[in-house]
């Protein structure tokens, strides 16, 4: 997999996680630990994207 394709895949995963976080925050049945885990994974992806894109 080329670097460009890998970056695109990471960006797609980041966008998917972003949508899941928003959905979880709107859902009253979602606990804070789940939301925190999603946000942590989203941040990890963002950092990896930034590192590879530099």
From TrEMBL:
One Pfam family this sequence matches: DUF465
InterPro entries (UniProt xref): DUF465, DUF465_sf
Name recorded for this polypeptide: DUF465 domain-containing protein
Upper lineage: Bacteria, Pseudomonadati, Pseudomonadota, Alphaproteobacteria, Rhodobacterales
């Amino acid at each position: 997999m080329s670097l460009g394709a890998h970056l695109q895949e990471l960006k797609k995963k980041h966008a998917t996680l972003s949508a899941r976080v928003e959905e979880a925050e709107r859902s009253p049945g979602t606990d804070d630990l789940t939301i925190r885990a999603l946000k942590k994974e989203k941040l990890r992806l963002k950092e990896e994207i930034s590192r590879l894109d530099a």
